[in-house]
Structure formats: C-alpha cells, structure tokens
Specification:
Elements (H helix, E strand, L loop, with lengths): L13 H8 L6 E3 L24 E8 L2 E8 L10 H19 L5 E6 L9 H19 L4 E5 L5 E2 L1 H7 L3 E5 L4 E2 L3 H8 L9 H8 L1 H7 L4 E3 L3 H13 L19 H7 L5
Parallel strand pairs: 3-4, 4-5, 5-7, 6-8, 7-9
Antiparallel strand pairs: 1-2, 2-3
C-alpha cells in the first residue's frame, strides 16, 4: 500500500505558491527582491521593509498557456497592501489586460493571503485597492480572473472586495473570507461579539467551507498543491461565474450573540 501525503498549498510562502501554480521551469519573476523596490514609509515608523513589499508577480505558463500569477505574502505584515505592493498587483493586471486586448491568451491568477490595507500606509493602500478593483473589472471583460484563497491569513479588508470581483474564487478548508477580520471585530465591538481566539467559531462563520456553501466561492478543494493547481486549470477550461448567494437574510443585529448566530444558520 502506498501512502500519499498531500503537499500543503497554504503552508507555502507567496513565491512558492506562485511557482507551484506555474508550469515547471517557466517561472519568471517581475520586480523580484533584487530590484529592491520596497515601501519608503515603513522604516520611518520602525518597521523593517521587505524588498518585494510582500507581493510576488510571476510570469510563465499554466497548462501550456501564458500566465501571470500574483501572490501576496501573509508572513510579511499579515500580507497587507501598501503603495508599492498595490502598484505591482494593479500593474500586473493591466499588463494582462493589454495582452488580452492584443489577442494573446493569458491566464491570470490571484493567490491571496492578506489582512487587507496596510495601516502604516492607510490612504495609499485604499487608493491601491481601488486601482486593483478597476483593473480586475477591466480584465475580466476579456478573460477570466481566478482567485485562490488558501493561505495562513485568509482574505480580509479591501482585498476581500477585490476577490468578490474575480470571475471565479477557489477556496480550501483553511480559507477565511470577510470584510473585517476577527481581531478587528473583537477590538471594535468586544469579545462578546467575536472572540478572536475561538478558532472553530471563526471557521464556522467565515471559513472556506462556509463561504463555498454560501455562494461566495465557485470551487472547494483540499489544501494540496496538486488539487489547487488542477482546480485553477479547470477554472480556465470550464469557466463558471459566481452564482446567486445562498446566504440567509441578515438578521436583526440587536439580537444577542447566540440568537444572531442561530439566525445565520451557524452553530454557536
């Protein structure tokens, strides 16, 4: 008997996830760390910058078709988006759009693992997300844009809005998707509203399986490199748009926590 061990996609860094999605030996990174393009704002706030600003943009082929994979690094400031990283994402999407306009087949994948806008660059991050959203909408008029949510952080904040604009969204069991993360909810509304240490509750409320059941994702896969890659290839060969949401009507927010969760169909 042969024991098959899955290779976790979520546990890989941004660069490794991009390499895993592209065909072997075709990986070519744009503005890699040796280009030393990093945020000019972090050092002044006592934060060490990273020379790719937490965003990896790679070109190559995917299933033999020219492709661009954009991956965010959840290990650097929670995968947050600032001016430089946001410009890299928007620029990569714009380049894919130009390829598509010239009739060049291009597969664009967003492998996201991010807490949203970088607090140290708040307004610049907001502007960056707006540009990313515009670029996704323009690109998906020509070709599908696929998002993969299978990382350590999940997708929150402004990038959750960008995810919702993609043609297809692939999630794993460990994925989380929400506008506000558990820590933010607890800080702003108190632990009675959301206990950020209650990990089972977090996954029941905003986990990958839950979001897939609600219609926020088009495909649910195992956290395995081969499974994720197969789902991405399938998304371009057999495109499926996000369907109508299956989420229940939003209950009265004045309900107590337990009653509210029951109304949302979530076991407290």
């Amino acid at each position: 008997m042969t024991l098959l061990l899955a290779e976790s996609f979520a546990e890989r860094g941004a660069r490794e996830r991009a390499q895993a999605l592209l065909d072997s030996s075709t990986y070519r990174e744009l503005l890699d760390p040796f280009a030393r393009v990093s945020s000019p704002y972090l050092a002044a706030q006592g934060v060490a910058p990273q020379f790719d600003d937490g965003v990896v943009v790679a070109r190559g082929t995917l299933g033999g078709v020219r492709a661009c994979v954009i991956a965010t690094d959840g290990r650097f400031l929670g995968g947050s988006i600032g001016e430089i990283g946001g410009a890299k994402i928007a620029g990569a999407l714009e380049r894919s759009r130009r390829d598509a306009e010239r009739g060049t087949a291009i597969r664009t994948v967003l492998a996201l693992d991010t807490g949203g806008i970088r607090l140290q660059e708040a307004n610049l991050g907001i502007l960056a997300v707006a540009e990313i959203c515009d670029a996704i909408v323009a690109l998906r008029e020509l070709v599908p844009v696929v998002a993969v949510i299978a990382g350590r952080v999940g997708v929150y904040g402004g990038l959750s809005l960008s995810t919702a604009l993609c043609s297809q969204v692939i999630v794993s069991e460990g994925a989380r998707i929400g506008l506000n993360g558990p820590d933010v909810v607890e800080t702003e509304a108190g632990i009675d509203e959301m206990d950020s240490s209650d990990r089972p509750l977090i996954w029941r409320v905003m986990g990958g399986r839950r979001r897939y059941a609600q219609g926020f994702a088009t495909d649910f896969v195992d956290d395995d490199i081969a499974a994720v890659r197969a789902a991405v290839e399938r998304a371009f060969v057999q495109p499926r748009e996000l369907g109508p949401l299956a989420a229940p009507p939003f209950p009265d927010p004045r309900l107590d926590r337990t009653s509210f969760l029951h109304a949302m169909g979530i076991e407290p």
